[in-house]
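One record is set out below.
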Amino acid sequence: MTSCLFHKTTVIAYARCTVWLLAVSGLAARLDAHPFHTSLAEVEWNPQTQRIEVAIRIDAGDFERALRRMTGRQIILERLDELDKLAERYLRSRMEWRSAADGRAMKWHWVGSELQTRFVWVYFEIAVPPSTTSVRITQRLLCEIDPSQINMTVFRSSKSRTGTRFDARVTTVTVALPSMKVRRN
């Protein structure tokens, strides 16, 4: 994974923006009564490797619930020896990366995961065939756990940065390469 993959400042800026928007809209006072379920992702095009690098921050409690539902057994992340294996299996079941032109599935390269106090970080790369000019991404992380789940995603290239939101209604976008410009489907 390159050093430019995960930019904490970008993710933190989006989190601050989300909190600010909630406060302005009057929803902040209701957060305790109605939890706000979000994930934050950074998706970056790496022209040297011809891969899309992905880092996703997921709420640990929500992720435990999703893994419990997927496996049918009790999951406690702090005691889980197989976090990487289950995290990869879950993400592959909830995300698709395909060529927008011909619909072919793209090859995943799992990098790993890490458990922090309140969050799980997952990292993987998507190999992009040389002739591919756009990618169709379908993302339904945690929507089976909570229909109000919001998955914020920042798309970055060397020349641009743009964000989009995946939720229960918007599950698919098309991203142009190498610009990382996003078009909702």
Summary: Residues 110 and 133 are 23 Å apart (CA to CA). Confidence is low (pLDDT under 50) at residues 1-6, 19-34. Helices lie at 8-25, 60-71, 83-94.
